[in-house]
Design goal:
By secondary structure, the chain is α+β, with helices and mostly antiparallel strands. It has one domain. 35% of the residues lie in helices and 23% in strands. It has six helices and five strands, in the order ααβααββααββ. A hairpin with a 7-residue loop joins β4 and β5.
Length: 115
C-alpha cells in the first residue's frame, strides 16, 4: 500500500487527531492561494498537517505558533514506520484567531532535520 493511503487509514482512526480544534487557512490580501500552492509544491497533504498538529513539537516563534514533527514525537506511536517520510514537517499558524480555531499560514520541510 502506498504511504499516503496507509497514513490516511491510521489517521482516520486516531482519536487524538479527531479531537483537534477547527483548522482554517489564513489568507493574505495579496495571495489567496498561498497555502494551497505551497502544500502542492512541497508534497504536503492535509493528513500530514493534522498529524503535525497532533504530535508535533509546539513552540511560539516570532508571534506565531509552530508545530514540528521530530523523531521523538512519533517514535512510540503507530506512525513510527513513517518517521523518515515525516521528519521535519513544520506548520505555522497565526495568533490572530478570536476563537479556538487554528489559522494556518504555511507549511514546509525543515531540511536540517531531515538529514
Amino acid at each position: 500500500m502506498k504511504f499516503q493511503k496507509q497514513l490516511h487509514q491510521i489517521i482516520s482512526s486516531d482519536e487524538i487527531i479527531q479531537n483537534l480544534p477547527q483548522i482554517e487557512i489564513f489568507f493574505s490580501a495579496k495571495d489567496h492561494n498561498h497555502f494551497d500552492r505551497r502544500l502542492q509544491q512541497r508534497a504536503i497533504n492535509w493528513d500530514m498537517i493534522k498529524l503535525a498538529l497532533a504530535y508535533g513539537k509546539f513552540q511560539y516563534h516570532s508571534q506565531a505558533q509552530t508545530w514540528t514533527l521530530l523523531d521523538k514525537s512519533l517514535k512510540h506511536t503507530s506512525y513510527a514506520k513513517f518517521i523518515d517520510k515525516l521528519r521535519g514537517l513544520r506548520i505555522i499558524a497565526t495568533n490572530f484567531s478570536l476563537d479556538e480555531s487554528l489559522r494556518l499560514s504555511t507549511a514546509y520541510w525543515t531540511y536540517d532535520l531531515r538529514k
